[in-house]
Amino acid sequence: MNAPVGGGAEQVFARFLDLERQTRAARDAAQLAYSLVNDGQSLFGFRHVALLIAGKVQAVTGVSAVEPNAPFVAFVEQAVAQLFKQDVLQQARVIAPQSLGESIQADWRSLSAAHVFWLPLIDRDRQVFGGLWLARDVPWNPSEHVLLSQLGDTYSHAWLALQPRTPWRLRWTRKRQVALVAALLLGLFIPVRQSVLAPAEVVPLGGRVVAAPLDGVIAEFLVKPNQTVKTGELLLRFESTTLTAQADVAERALDVAEAELKSNSQRSFTDAESNSRMDLLAARVEQKRAERDYARELLNRSEVRAERDGIAVFADAERLTGKPVQTGERLMEIADPNQAELRIELAVGDAISLEPGAEIALFLDSDPLKRHLATLERSAYEAQPTAGGQLAYRLDANFVDAPPRIGLRGTAKIFGDRAPLALYLLRRPLAGLRQSVGL
């Protein structure tokens, strides 16, 4: 059994002053909390003390770290919560077990000492923001009431000096919390416009694709990306050494066939066998002429020329120079710089219901502060893999005002129909839940 240490009034007063000094000497809230539940033991002889701030135990005598689910902690918090509802915690007082419920009284008998003194901590507005649960095995006498009341003012002042802000549990009363939750729930039904973000690129509108006219190797590019070109201007050349040799061989083969046909036609008047070969030799001449014309055509195709005015749209000439290409492979595009559209790759997971004419805002990577407006023209029904390996729907949109430069990239914000805020916020989680559990 613990009991207060006896001594003269001078000794008690000296201990009391030393206790106040230790309280004011605390450097932070953790040190102060430890002092409040431990330093007064020699003066008041308590078994244990629990410090509560905003209804939650912050420190306990002899414990370095409070376990929130410990039986004693739960008991003290429940007991103080009941006393708070009874409005009896405004003043320092002895707590009678009879003022609590039967279950809490049973916990009191097993977890705490018989005599408990409640020492409130009061802020500048005279509102209780915490307190000390002091328990010991002998009753509290009136002189100790006076000392503890004085210490309560000191403790409150020291705590407010280190923690000037009121705990949120006290700033937000239960009524305020209920009102806030109700407002948030009602806010979930506010209709908002759905929107998604997707990568986008400014591409030519109605451009003329320049494809490889033959199988071969590109020798050189004569234009640069985004260079202005005129109709008939030379764009690029293929390696023509082999094609030139084939054209020469075909030309010589035609000369041989024509000479053979001429010689045979002269002998046909006197030689019946030569006359019978005329049709065969004439057919061979036509064959060699066709081979020569085809070789010349391939040689002419080795120089690719522009079929319209515009700008040459392609990525990099150095990457294509010396590269073998096949017939029909895309090399560049000739486009009007004043005619462009917006191409968007909308990921499958971000797809929402979109109708033609939906509003789109483009923010370019090169100028993220400027907003370019566009309207949805068409959207693909089938998703295709992108360059990054992601499945996405292709969306095409027309610019409302003058389009940006072709080739620029950015992020498009696509606006859909209005929907409740709850659906806007929880659309992706709900979709994931449905995919995982099938609800």
Automatic annotation (TrEMBL):
Keyword Cell membrane: no
Keywords: Coiled coil
Main localization, broad class: other
Keyword field contains Coiled coil: yes
Entry's transmembrane regions: none
Localization: Cell envelope
Cellular component terms (Gene Ontology): cell envelope
Protein name: Biotin-lipoyl like
